[in-house]
Design goal:
Elements: H1 2-14, H2 18-33, E1 37-44, E2 49-56, E3 67-69, H3 73-81, E4 85-87, E5 109-117, E6 120-129, H4 137-163, E7 176-179, E8 181-184, E9 187-194, H5 212-236, H6 243-255, H7 261-270, H8 275-291, H9 296-319, E10 330-334, H10 339-343, E11 350-355, H11 363-371, E12 375-377, E13 391-395, E14 400-403, H12 407-427, E15 444-449, H13 452-460, E16 466-470, H14 472-476, H15 484-498, E17 503-506, H16 533-538, H17 540-553, E18 560-564, H18 570-589, E19 599-603, H19 606-609, H20 612-616, E20 621-624, H21 626-634, H22 652-667, E21 672-675, H23 682-691, E22 695-698, H24 703-710, H25 715-725, H26 731-744
Helix pairs in contact: 1-2, 1-4, 2-4, 5-6, 5-7, 5-9, 7-8, 8-9, 13-15, 15-17, 17-18, 23-24, 23-25, 23-26
Length: 757
């Protein structure tokens, strides 16, 4: 059974379109279960019905025409309850609905299982048989397992079709949403420009050629060049290997002939495709075909196809380099965006960024937030290859990409963009005003930075200090560990720019989803593994070089604070502070006038929450890393689209943990700050000030929004709200209560700010 399952899934994955995938499913399942009927019904949201999309065993003319309304018939019942139904005589069931066009009256046995993707029922997979019998447990388990594996495949195939504006039944659709993760808040409307790395067959976008004959001629020239290379390799090996092995290169030459791969590519070019796209399509089709073969020797030939076609692609790209045309409303799209791709786009033309891979903490996301460019990361279901030149909406607040936008939706988002612009313009006058409540309770607003480009923007927004300088960013952008001298220069720039304001530098925090290319950490569970302080304590040479650089950079400025990440126990703090003291002594011995800086810890692990009191006795300040703390408390990777909806900084457990940290820090008379996305959420900021946080540290783009809200509320009102929400048991209820408070305070225009849930 397992082999049959694998074979069906592989076949479906290789299908060229949704209909082909469904036809494969019904054929192979009917065959595997030795039953008489297999059918697939898919939900068409455009008509709110389940449409018979494929079948073997029912009348062919019914396919695409027969539909069942939501909840109608046994199919509707399976979808409604999202549970299998197994009947020995379907006609006796009260929900049985006879449809003459299908010819199913002769089939008594019925087994239907829901096809579920991300908690949504996409459709129903049905098998039927003439005999009055229940399908056995093995057959039911097979169908359930298969539907679970196929759900993602069908969802992606549907999505791909939706890019072209068609529903499964062929109806025109609009407003197709592809979920992802918010990388940078904001909204953008524009034309998708797909960018891709060189010589990668999997990332070539679909594009049309303007001159078919010229494109064929160009392709054939590149094909001939590769064939010549193969012949040359054949000749070079004369006398070195047996003739049998040399013949392999002759085989490669023939594989590229006009009656083989080369002809298939030419035929696709004749259909209007550009050479690179045609080659990628043909290559990937053949690779998938060979990979599914049961014979091991034949499966290995997939690598040969991939290598040959990559060589042709290299010539195509070398002889005619792709020049990307950036439109005035460019939304840059790629499977995996890199900073290099980003900087190639003229700033004035870049409206948004979309990456199918990556997280909210990737280099690109950090840069995007710095630049204020709306960004969606981790849109794993997005058929990015088919987006080139299409108009799309990017919702950086929700982390969504919308294709085929309707006029109504376009108008709505255009109004949102106008509101954004008006809001930003209206907040400018707050820049030089203090951040204090209406009854004069003072809160400090600091910024999170990682690049020098952040600094000027932060000062422009009235930042009072740096609550988190991500020292890993220069490490991530380097090809090796930066030297002590190089680090000193980087840190000095930050300290000088903000002097005399305090700058909090976090020691190197890598691991988890932040890997250095030259220092890879390969672990099954990286978030629970070797990261943060654990790495640097195991490598004191890295830690010492970094701390020495920080201390040297602070000479004469004395506005440095050092913060230790990923602390889980007091021993880590003691070990780290000993190393910092040693670095300080060494520099004094070198006759450098270095002052010992304040040392703090980040509370981002549940263990640290319960040890805040003990940790506060050892350090000068406490800072909460709300992003990681929320992740660890809720056991949710916020960068995983499948569970990102469960991530909420408004979860009662998170709020209780934060409150406990503040109370324990205050008990030890130590200042307490918070640096994370939560601090930049205007609604959350009200709760944080009520808890007693002295400083909120956030991205520069959120500073004025948060300041506006805080200046609009009284401390007493904020504390009353906190008392209310601390009695609540649901994150959504808490969020609603906070929103209502903002509404009553007259700052509801800020509700669309970047949220933490």
């Amino acid at each position: 059974m397992l082999e049959q399952l694998r074979g069906i899934v592989q076949k479906v994955n290789a299908a060229k379109d949704l209909q082909s995938a469904l036809n494969i499913i019904v054929h192979r399942v009917r065959e595997a279960l030795s039953t008489q009927v297999c059918s697939v019904y898919l939900l068409d949201t455009d008509i709110n019905s389940h449409v018979l999309m494929a079948s073997e065993g029912l009348k062919e003319e019914a396919i695409g025409h027969v539909s069942l309304e939501l909840g109608e018939g046994l199919v509707g019942l399976v979808a409604k309850h999202a549970e299998p139904i197994n009947l020995q005589d379907a006609s006796n069931h009260p929900s049985y609905y006879y449809i003459e066009e299908t010819g199913e009256e002769v089939f008594h046995a019925f087994l239907g299982v829901p096809i579920i993707h991300h908690r949504s029922v996409l459709g129903v997979l049905v098998v039927q048989h003439e005999d009055r019998r229940r399908f056995d447990e093995g057959e039911e388990a097979f169908l359930i397992t298969l539907s679970a594996q196929l759900a993602g495949v069908i969802a992606h195939a549907e999505a791909t079709g939706a890019i072209e504006g068609l529903s499964p039944s062929g109806h025109k659709v609009s407003d197709t949403v592809f979920p992802g993760i918010s990388g940078s808040s904001g909204v953008a409307i524009g034309q998708a420009v797909v960018v891709f790395p060189p010589a990668d067959l999997n990332q070539i976008p679909d594009r049309h050629t303007k001159n078919i004959e010229k494109e064929i001629e160009f392709f054939n020239a590149c094909l001939n060049a590769v064939q010549d290379d193969m012949r040359e390799l054949h000749n070079q090996l004369a006398g070195q290997v047996a003739e049998e092995e040399r013949q392999l290169f002759d085989v490669y030459v023939r594989m590229l002939d006009d009656d083989a791969l080369g002809n298939e590519v030419v035929e696709r070019i004749k259909m209007g495709s550009w050479a690179q796209g045609a080659l990628a399509y043909v290559a990937n089709e053949h690779v998938r075909t060979f990979e599914m073969m049961s014979d091991e020797y034949l499966r290995e030939r997939a690598a040969d196809i991939r290598d040959l076609c990559s060589r042709v692609l290299f010539y195509l790209q070398e002889d005619e380099p792709v020049t990307t045309e950036y439109l005035d409303d460019t939304i840059l799209v790629s499977e995996e965006l890199t900073p290099a791709m980003l900087v190639e786009v003229p700033t004035e033309k870049l409206k948004g960024l979309i990456s199918a891979k990556g997280s909210g903490n990737s280099h690109v996301a950090i840069l995007a937030r710095t630049m204020g460019v709306p960004t969606v990361m981790g849109a794993v279901d997005l058929p990015f290859n088919q987006l080139d030149g299409k108009q799309i909406i990017l919702d950086g607040y929700r982390g969504e990409v919308i294709s085929n936008p309707s006029e109504q939706l376009l108008t709505r988002y255009e109004n949102t963009i106008k509101e954004q612009d008006q809001l930003v313009a209206g907040l400018e006058n707050l820049k030089d005003l203090p951040c204090e409540t209406a009854d004069n309770h003072r809160v400090h607003l600091w910024v999170n930075t990682g690049l020098m480009s952040d600094v000027m923007h932060s000062l422009d927004q009235g930042a009072e200090g740096i609550g988190l300088f991500r020292t890993e960013v220069p490490f991530l952008l380097s090809e090796r560990f930066p030297s002590e001298q190089e680090q000193t220069k980087i840190y000095r720039e930050q300290l000088e720019a903000f002097a005399p304001k305090l700058v909090t530098m976090r020691t190197l925090d890598v691991g988890g989803d932040k890997d250095l290319p030259y220092f890879p950490i390969d672990e099954e569970n990286p978030f629970l593994g070797w990261r943060g302080i654990r790495v640097t304590l195991d490598h004191p040479e890295i830690f010492m070089a970094q701390v020495r650089a920080m201390l040297r950079a602070s000479i004469g400025l004395e506005n440095l604070q050092i913060m230790l990440p990923m602390i889980s126990n007091v021993n880590e703090v003691n070990s780290a502070t000993q190393l910092i003291k040693r670095a300080h002594r060494e520099l004094l011995q070198e006759n450098l006038d270095v002052k010992y800086p304040p040392i703090g810890v980040m509370i981002e692990l549940p263990a640290a929450v319960y040890q805040t009191r003990a940790l506060a006795k050892l350090v000068d300040f406490i800072s909460v890393g709300s992003n990681d703390l929320t992740q660890y408390l809720l056991a949710v990777d916020r960068n995983n689209p499948r569970v990102a909806n469960l991530y909420s900084a408004f979860h009662p457990a998170v709020l209780n943990a934060l409150y406990q940290v503040v109370l324990q820090a205050q008990e030890q008379k130590k200042p307490v700050s918070i640096c994370g996305e939560m601090a930049g959420d205007p609604g959350a900021a009200v709760l944080l000030l009520a808890m007693g946080f002295d400083t909120l540290s956030m991205n520069a783009s959120a500073l004025l929004k948060v300041k506006s809200v805080i200046r609009s509320v009284n401390l007493d009102a904020a504390q009353d709200l906190l008392d209310q929400v601390m009695q609540m048991e649901d994150a959504q209820t808490i969020r609603s209560a906070v929103d209502l408070t903002l509404y009553n305070a007259g700052v509801d225009r800020l509700l669309r700010s970047s949220r933490t849930n």
